[in-house]
Write the structure tokens for this entry.
Amino acid sequence: REKPASCLAVAMGMLDDGSFVDRLAKPLKTRGSREMKTLKLYICQALGRIGGDKAKDSLVYAFKGKDKAVQGAALLALSEYPDKGTVRLLTKDGLKSGDQNVQNFAIVSLGRIGARLDPGDTTYRQIREELKDTVVRPAKNKYRAMYAAIALGIMGDDVAKDYFTKNLAYEEQSTDVNRSAVAMSAGLLELRT
């Protein structure tokens, strides 16, 4: 039963029809089985694609819930909203969350938003500074700098180049995870330039 429902959620999202938002948002407010959880992931994706205030409100609701996988899907879907309110939510509640996965999803979402903005835009500069600070001064979350470098790579920012140059230059100190982020950032930067 879950598979047809998930496919339907994806199809509804692809139609970009705001009239589907109420029907899609309803399962986000219910508890359920593992199948329901999978459906919620697809619903977040669909709501992000449809857009609009009601869809965004439903994604914020999903992000503030307790299910970590649904939180991550909601954060990624929120990257479809390149506005100051979303950036504030991602930085205030996402980056400052005590959960490392939430932090990492928020970082990637900020990079996706930044990629849509003009580099001269105030919001772009705010995102860049937040991510740059994360790369330069990583927190306890050992993957945070790596995700920030990937996000800056998505944005096409030179700070990502500096990060991967540094990590390639000191290869003996670099972990496999860092080298993977370096390769990904390099590819993303190449695509953006």
Residues 34-50 form the longest helix (17 residues). The chain has a mean pLDDT of 84.
